[in-house]
Predict the structure of Cytochrome bc1 complex Rieske iron-sulfur subunit.
Amino acid sequence: MTQPATRRTVLATGAAALAAGCVGCGGDNGSGSSGGTKLTAVSDIPEGGGKVFRDQKVVVTQPAKGEFRAFSAICTHEGCTVDQVADGTIDCPCHGSRFHIADGSVAHGPATRPLPKKSIKVEGNSILLT
Ligand code: FES
């Protein structure tokens, strides 16, 4: 006869997962799945530059070797999609706003607000959207 999980057991398990800060890391289910969606390969993101993923509306940058950042690709001025990363900035084609690749902050208006950060993680040679 199997014992159904008690409410206390379920809560304790949930708390343990939260405490570990590793929900979806695959430790419990043995799948090894990271819970993220593969976006690109590490080698696709140039050091000191970045790349725009129009479909996912995300821009991934590598401001310093081995450091990856991701931001929304939607310009905070009027909502165009940024279209390139060049000379240390993420550039919007509509009215010329530029954002720093390191933190998404405004380098050049008319935008006044930074690009919102997106969550990514590097796993092996892959960059995953989490
Ligand atoms: S929408 Fe990007 S600069 Fe205006």
In short: Strands lie at 37-41, 50-53, 58-64, 67-72, 84-86, 89-91, 98-100, 106-108, 120-123, 126-129. The domain at 31-129 is CATH 2.102.10.10 (Rieske Iron-sulfur Protein).
